[in-house]
Write a structure and sequence with these properties.
The complex is a heterodimer of chains A (330) and B (265).
Chain A: E1 8-12, E2 14-15, E3 18-19, H1 21-37, E4 41-47, H2 54-60, E5 64-69, H3 78-92, E6 96-100, H4 105-115, E7 120-124, E8 126-129, E9 135-141, E10 144-149, E11 156-160, E12 177-180, E13 191-198, E14 211-215, H5 222-234, E15 238-241, H6 243-248, E16 268-272, H7 278-281, E17 289-294, E18 307-310, H8 313-329
Parallel strand pairs in A: 1-4, 1-6, 4-5, 5-12, 6-11, 7-11, 14-15, 14-16, 16-17, 17-18
Antiparallel strand pairs in A: 2-3, 8-9, 9-10
Chain B: E1 2-8, E2 10-12, E3 36-38, H1 40-56, E4 58-65, H2 71-80, E5 84-88, H3 98-112, E6 117-121, H4 132-140, E7 144-154, E8 158-165, E9 168-175, E10 178-182, H5 194-202, E11 205-208, H6 210-213, E12 228-234, E13 242-243, H7 248-261
Parallel strand pairs in B: 1-4, 1-6, 4-5, 5-11, 6-10, 7-10
Antiparallel strand pairs in B: 2-3, 7-8, 8-9
Helix pairs in contact in B: 2-5, 3-4
Classes of the chains: A alpha/beta (330), B alpha/beta (265).
Chain lengths: 330, 265
Amino acid sequence: MENTPGPVWVIAEQIDGRILTVSLQLIGQARKLAYELGASVEVVLLGDELDEHPQQLFAAGADRVYLGSDPRLAFYQPELYTEIIVKLAQERQPEMVLIGSTDVGRELAPLVAARLETGLTAHCIDLALGENGILEQIVPAYGGLISIICPEKRPQMATVARGVFPTPELDESRAGEVILLDVPDELPRRVQTLEIVREEPEGVPLESAPIVVAGGAGVGDLEGWRQIAELAKVLNGALGCTRPAVDEGWAGMETMIGQSGKMVSPELYIGVGLSGEQQHMVGIVGAKVMVAINNDPHAPIFEQVDYGIIDDCREFVPVLIDKIREYQAM
Amino acid sequence: MLDIVVCVKAVPDPKEADKIRIDPVTKTLTRADVPLVLNPLDKHAMEAALQLKERFDAHIAVLSMGPPEAGKIVRECLALGADQGVLLCDRAFAGADAYATAYTLAKGIEKIGPYDVVFCGMASSDGSTEWVGPELATFLGVPVVTRVKEMVEFGEGWWKVKASLEDGYRLVRVKLPAVLTVTRELNTPRTLSFSGIIKARKKEIREWGVSDLGVPSDLVGLKGSPTIVSSMTTRESKREVEIIGGTREEKAERLVQRLVEAGVI
């Protein structure tokens, strides 16, 4: 007789009482995986004043919601959140645990994985069931894709960015069971979030921008970066970048597009001075038209776009800006 | 006096890392002679330690796990001003995922001795998981703050730091000893000085293997890694590229024309 597999878990997240889109997307994907496995979908949600929220999680595909709703959980508290989730996971023995690649998820996931003595795959761009129901966790690397598995340890854990999976249609007729979680009496106190300060982002938000201009190491220097910022501005688009551009200090981490950054799906994408590494390219989901500007005709980016300009971007971008302005003035 | 450990990683030079590719036929990695360099974010971890040393007086131990060639990045950190260099180097350590790496580094730190703080870069440019810092802290049994972008206050036995959020920050109070992973916003790394390089020549780098750490070899490297790569594929593009030719002016004009026709600008 076959054993019933453990549940598929999603650690959901909320900010100021709003469930994050990525959490709903993960519940949608968990539903598919659970269906194939013959397992149930369980969601863990921690925060304060969350009594109304489980319905949305059920509508997205959850069968059971473990709810920790307490003023002491209002902010993400690393030790307390880890403690609650680890204890519950040891009890429930989930087969898989999916977590959003968010500010919180990126710290909480490894804390939980290490305590459960299991593996954790970072920033997956697909999750599928392979042989024997093992989770194939797909990540971009070395110009292609690699599949990572966690064959022996359980749960199989993965983080996924917003926009990798579609937001499921909410089925308000679905219902499920809510189980309230207790907050331990002995609160761990070694690391405490005292305050969370949100700052207003500048410019057009990347995720919803119809036009995205992205720059890479080939942009060369800050002067080159100003030029592509100008290109983005002229097009009323958002400016994104690759990891090397972040490392160079030209752009902020929050504008990075790709596996460990943002997922974008613009009408028009223009990649400037970047080679077309998969870690970046997987972040451009279903762009309508793609353009590359690069002086290396062998750059892999030219195999992945609709229009290619082989030229020094430092020389070409100012000319392009002029031509766009001419067109706009017509 | 603070005791600081900085964990650093030798990574393929990010400027040339795209030479390492999946062979479309054999589905294995093509060998390319890409030099190993100090992981970019680890320079900020090192700088954080050096600034504390200037302010409070500190002993800085640099710890890396890697092949013998990784010794050169440990040497680089000694030249920057670290006092002690340790390379965890053993065939048994090869093939480690983030979990086994964190475990091995934790054993190295325990062997180095008591510490107040461990600094790591937020992520490595080749693995980019961000897992090693938090998993290391778990193995050491100490708290962690990831993505530290500002040190706010240095209290007696605790620090206050700002952890970077996508749209702001989290103000965190953390009890020492602790692991802190840092972002590039934290500081501007100094460059190597000639005198530093000369001084570093005299400093010894210790190499520790499985027996030095006293760890079972099935808990490190590939054997100690819960995750493994099961397959590799190349990614096919569905787009057919048109390379737009002509003079620079013509290219720009033709591109604008195509984008207008496509209705995207």
